[in-house]
Amino acid sequence: MDTLGRTRPRHATIKVRNFLAVPAVVEALGADPDAVARSAGLDPAIFADPALDVPYAALGRLVRACVAATGCDTFGLMVGARQGATAPGLTGLMALNAPTVGEGLRVLAEGLKTSDTGGVVLLGCSGGEAWVGYHVIAPAIDEADQIVDAGAAIAFNILRAMRGLEWRPLRVRLTCKPPRDRTPYARLFGAPVEFGAASARVVFDAALLDAPILGRDPDTAAILAPLYAEALAAATADFVSAARALVRAQLGAASLSRESVARALGVSERTLVHRLEARGLTYSGLADEAKFETAQSLLRKGETIADTAARLGFADQSAFTRAFKAWSGAPPARWRTERGEG
Q1: HTH araC/xylS-type domain: from which residue to which, for each copy (predicted)?
Q2: pTM (2 d.p.)
Q3: What angle in degrees, to the nearest 10, is found between the helix axes of 283-300 and 317-328?
Q4: According to DSSP H, which parts of 11-133 are helical?
Q5: Domain residues of the chain, as ranges?
Q6: Are strands 119-126 and 129-136 parallel, antiparallel or unpaired?
Q7: What fold is seen in the domain 238-342?
């Protein structure tokens, strides 16, 4: 039994516009979109209302049904590739009309909650490289890796919309297992792709953050600004979810610390501690929770115990084994064997 306690955001939702391409991809792969939607417990008519909020868990069920019906293990990638740069709605439009790429990506990360509370956009910059990624924070979501693939493809489309269709990243990291056919990934991203990563990232030269967004319209930005501010104010902010996502994204990086998480959240370390304590949580507890979840994911994907320990920043395998046993009640080798994954 997994013994590490955790608190989770409840009733996460996502707007239909964020996955509006699903029926077209299902049909292109030879299946009936309406039948697939019904098999997932959804009314096919939802796709006629892009502004409709649906439970994030329902998206997971839908993607699972789509993968089963089509037999396509790159389904999420195909959906994301078909979603335009304005898939996140008003947030996407604001991002595309920001002065620079960096400011546009910050708008995307800040405003995703207006259309998606089951995932977060994460940004990072280190050693001359920057990255943008998507992470599912809603609990127990079916086909989360497929959804992350879609998020990475949408992020790629947004960056191309900002800098031109010829733009390509330095590399891409994805959380999914290596697919049977890697060609769709190579064709879309035009860059090396790593599978089975701890977190998804579209990596690019950090200098791009200061580059202007091509085709930006200041007048459009001025018109949209009050609407965007209103949408942000109406969206429910979840401080714990944001902190949890940042810890998860920084795992294995030298910058993972209470200070770096506080800085990314725009608060002092003292405020971070107090806000977490008010919810009965601690930074170290969030870090342990994230390490445990990531360790389980990596072990399920066949990662060796030694490599998992290294990815999570442990000094050696024995230190990781002790920590994992404290979290789960069993050492990692036995945990994996008991689940038939060893």
Answers
A1: 241-338
A2: 0.78
A3: 100
A4: 22-28, 33-39, 56-70, 75-82, 90-96, 101-111
A5: 78-210, 238-342
A6: antiparallel
A7: Arc Repressor Mutant, subunit A (1.10.10)
